[in-house]
């Protein structure tokens, strides 16, 4: 019995990791894919080694800043909406307490509780933390899912940079004659590993996510290589 209690206390769920997992997977995937594709496009246009490295490093810096800014703006909008909803809910709790009790009881009734129990649960939860109960059960806002703009921006920038550095290092350590092959191999292996890690962390089977990122990685690299060859004159 004690073991079951201890196990239940240690139990974790994938949903508790969704916020940072989404930002990390998207950021690293974009970092690998966009940077490797840009390097291969420039390399296929017969650019010199310095230009290839410059393109890769520029992609890393610009992409990290873009991911951070985009994530910050997006999550800030979500945070503003959450704050507005919470302020409105707090005002309603101050002006129409009984109505708010009824709203919360209706939610529990729809989840399967009988009328008397639903109202009792609503009353007790609201006596403990009225705004928290309505935020969680009426608005769908909790500590695990609430918007954190700065955290999301830093995670996205860091994840993008950690992904983008891989094709940049591959280009740096490779000779100009085989840079496209080296970058593509390193990038596809990295994308495959990312697909597996992301799937495992999210509690999903790894095969489909891995095949998905590899497929789109190949599409992106082939597309930019084609563009490079056109404008490179061959």
Automatic annotation (TrEMBL):
Signal peptide: none annotated. Keywords: Membrane, Plasmid, Transmembrane, Transmembrane helix. One of its GO terms (cellular component) is endomembrane system. Its main location: membrane. InterPro entries: Ccc1_fam. GO terms for molecular function: manganese ion transmembrane transporter activity. GO terms for biological process: intracellular manganese ion homeostasis. It is found in: Endomembrane system. This is Fe(2+)/Mn(2+) transporter pcl1. It comes from Acetobacter pasteurianus subsp. pasteurianus.
